[in-house]
């Protein structure tokens, strides 16, 4: 009897390898090809919606994908039938970068997710909690302004400064100290297992991989081949992330044990640990849950603000007259002898309009995180079967000429005197989504984004490096879970306030 491989196994292996070679060649081929979905899926689907309308069904491998690309469709998916579409598809990203769907973004709709959402609303992002951390945000923005002042007159990579700001704010609020940019008082603590630059690269990779169209997510039986190499990268970034989160939790749990009944939360991880110890929880939280929630807080809070502020300054460099109007408002309301505090933001409608216009033209998440139908639903007369994946293309909504005059133009004035918020109530503008699964940390994001834009414009005049014309500025984006600039912005900052204003301690 021959105990070698059967012909079926041999043929299957050969077929799988042959298929892998063909698909990989198609994926990597650089010549133009007639694919409906290109490297920027939100733009491809935008073009399709202009031809086929605001409600489309696409077929991604084994799964039907229903796309809503209008205000009315967004309202039906995210409000009218919100519970029916509150599910999440199980993707490789959710598995390998979110502790097997344990975070808030990728966890399935149910008791676990509802408990996590309640924790965010009542504990982590309540107005009381955010107000208690205002001194941290203020201090870190001062550090940003000082770093820009030190680099004044020279071309600088703005995203680096903005990411450092975001990481420092989030690190101090969530983790209790600057893990990745320590000050003297932090030096006594054990260093984290990743460097600052490694952590920044990890965050960029995390957002890219959580938004890619992985072939195995659409054709599950091909997943083991990892035809695009995405799963390998997801596993690698997941391991790096886990090393860091283990370090953080071990430190916090050790302090919790040491202090015993005298334990008092100092940061959001402490709040999470205390929450997990509550004996009345409907669903018990384990260490993976705590790491997954902490990852959401760090990644979400860092990426959205840095990306949005970079886009804002890039647009303003192309429209100096708008930057001039912003400076005039700041001088009139704030004066030239102080920085902008959060309490003053409500008195700066033009700065708020710049923020909203940036979020309209460059939504951080151009297609909201995919949802999944939990039951059969009829939408606009069409049957949407349970299990269908749902995409809401905010990129198309924000460019709808029936809503926005000259939709491709950066015009903050369109928001002056127009009652429209970015908190999920007005479906014309949904940078954070809407309904049950909208971003729970949007209130923090708004504070950091608006305060950053206001202070950056108040403290500095901005220009492009010598020899670079505004019309030459690259405004292409990269598609992922977020939508950053493809070519990072390089600009020159020149101080515009009295010199003593910049003499700030960190």
UniProtKB/TrEMBL annotation:
The keyword Ribonucleoprotein does not apply. GO terms for molecular function: heme binding; iron ion binding; monooxygenase activity; oxidoreductase activity, acting on paired donors, with incorporation or reduction of molecular oxygen. Heme binds at residue 439. GO terms for biological process: secondary metabolite biosynthetic process. CDD domains: CYP71_clan. Keywords: Heme, Iron, Membrane, Metal-binding, Monooxygenase, Oxidoreductase, Transmembrane, Transmembrane helix. Its cofactor is heme. The chain crosses the membrane at residues 6-26, 58-78. Belongs to the cytochrome P450 family. This is Flavonoid 3'-monooxygenase. It comes from Dendrobium nobile.
